[in-house]
Amino acid sequence: MGRPSGAGQGADLLAWEQALQASGLPLLGLEGPKGRPRLAMGPPVPAGMSAERELLDLWLTRRLTVDVVRVAIVPHVSEGYELVDLHDVWLGEPPLPAQVAAGEYRATLGIDAPSGPELESAAGRLLESATLPRERAKGRGIVRYDLRPLVEAVAVAEPGPPVILRIRTRFDPQLGTGRPAEVMAALEALLGRPIPVADVVRERLVLAGDP
After folding, report:
1. Which of 21, 71, 83, 205 is the most buried (most CB within 10 A)?
2. Tens digits of per-residue pLDDT, 29-54?
3. H or E stretch including 164?
4. Number of domain units in the chain
C-alpha cells in the first residue's frame, strides 16, 4: 500500500480499518458490537516521511480470490492512500513484523548538495568502514551504538540535479533499526559539510528471503 507523508502508523491503521469495514469483506475480528478487523503492519515509518509499497496483513474468515478482495476494497480506500497489490499468504508464516529484515529509502537532495561523484566517494568510504560510532538521544540520556552493521547499501541513484540517493538499512531485533537520517549524518561527517535533504521516501520493506 502507499501512504501519505506525515501520517503516523495509528492514522494508517485507522484509514485501513475504515476502508476494510466499509468493504463488506468477511473480516476476522469483527465479532461483537465493538469488534475491529485483525490487522498487522510492519515497522512504523519515521515521522514526516511518506512511503510506497508498505505491507499490511489482514485476516478473512473465509478464503476469497485476490480479484474479489481488490474489487471490494478499492472504492473505500481513503484519500492519500493506495492499494498497490494483494497476495494470498500462508497462515503458518511468522507474523509480518517478525519477517521484516530491511527498509529501502529514496533520498532526494536539496539545493547546494554535494555532487554525485562526491557522494559516491563518501558512500564507498562509509561502506568500507569497519565501524561507524554514532550517538542517539533516548529519553533523557544518550545511547552510543555502531551504525555500520545496520547499513546494507548506500548509492547515488541519479547524479542530478537533484541528486538522488538510495539507502538500504537493516531491522535487527538485537541491534535495532538503521535510520536513513543517521546514514545521512554519517555521510556528512565523512564529507565535512551538511547535506541538504528535500525529501525521503521509504520505497519498500524487505522481508527475510527477499532479494
Report:
1. 205
2. 887 777 788 888 888 887 778 889 99
3. strand 164-172
4. 2
